[in-house]
Amino acid sequence: MEEQEIDLRDYLRVLKKRFGLVVWITIGCAVISVLIALILPSVYESSAIIEPAKINNVSVETSAVGELLFKNPLNPYLKDIAKQMGLKEKEAYYLPKRFEMLDKLGYIQIRGKGNTPEEAKKLVDVIVSLILKRHEKLVGNALKISDDEMSNLKAQLLNVKSEIEQ
């Protein structure tokens, strides 16, 4: 079997014959993409990055936990978001599709989508405020537990001290 040599001139001849087809395909793709861009509604995106609260240099919460909490329809956080956004309760079930939480090098990034820039920003702001309130509560509970432990340890220390003195 001999290999057939193909010359560059042959390629150019074929391209010259099919030039009209290539141009029409390119124009057709451009027209279709413009039509799709005009038909689809505009979607605006807003994002915020927050640093989660830390206890002993360990994050209180990750974005995965936040996603589970905030996207669960049975959890009150989703209803709080809808209430603060001024949405009806039925519309609250569509909210999880409009935002996401991502881990970015120890920070939590919240991205929200909306039909207007203001709506997207408001969604992200509401979620950030709820996350910060949640982190405040978690840190407050941790401080309360550590204070209780400290008082218990002090009481034990006083008991041991009194036993030693007797």
Structure, explained:
The chain has 2 domains: 8-39; 44-165, no CATH class. By secondary structure, the chain is of the alpha+beta class. The protein has helices at 8-17, 19-39, 63-71, 76-85, 117-165; strands at residues 44-50, 54-55, 58-59, 99-104, 107-114. α4 (76-85) packs across α5. The protein is built from 5 helices and 5 strands. Strands 1-5-4 form a 3-stranded antiparallel beta sheet. The N and C termini lie far apart (108 Å). Helices cover 60% and strands 15% of the residues. It is elongated and about 110 Å long.
Class based on secondary structure composition and strand pairing: alpha+beta
The overall number of domains is 2
Main β-sheet, spatial strand arrangement:
1-5-4
Radius of gyration: 30 Å
Low-confidence stretches: none
**In percent terms, what proportion of residues is strand?**
15-25%
Continuous helix count: 5
- The percent of residues in helical segments reads 55-70%
- Tell me, briefly, the overall form: elongated
Main beta-sheet annotation: 3 strands, antiparallel
